[in-house]
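Supplementary Note 3. Input sequence used for the single-chain structure prediction.
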Amino acid sequence: MLIRERRIYFIAVVITMAAGLASRRYGNMLPAFLHDHAGDALWAGMIYFGFRMVWIRRSKAWAFLLSFVFSWVIEFSQMIQMPWLNELRSTMLGALILGHGFLVIDLVRYAAGILCTFVIDHYFLSNRRSLYEH
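The predicted structure, written as discrete structure tokens, is reproduced below.
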């Protein structure tokens, strides 16, 4: 059962990551609101699904809180400007994970993304359990 659940969260991470990367790559094809906000919200949602995948036995609330703290710490860390850290941020992977500059709106985007994935997780798991029982 745990392997099945981990697999589902892994798929959720991959889908969310792909959607986030697509929102960055093809953002000009999206409505302005999604272009501006979707990438960061999806990044935070991916973090939530990742925590659920790794710590499958912990509660959804725990993953919600940990994702929230993690994403906010990453955002606030962007105020730290050290040469080695800036060099890391200049790489594609470093920029995707650590970002570049602190923006208050990113904190809102992260919260919205985590909340959305938490809701999806809650309803998905509830529906899946009822399917197993039949």
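Residues 129-134 have pLDDT under 50 and may be disordered. The chain has one domain: 2-133.
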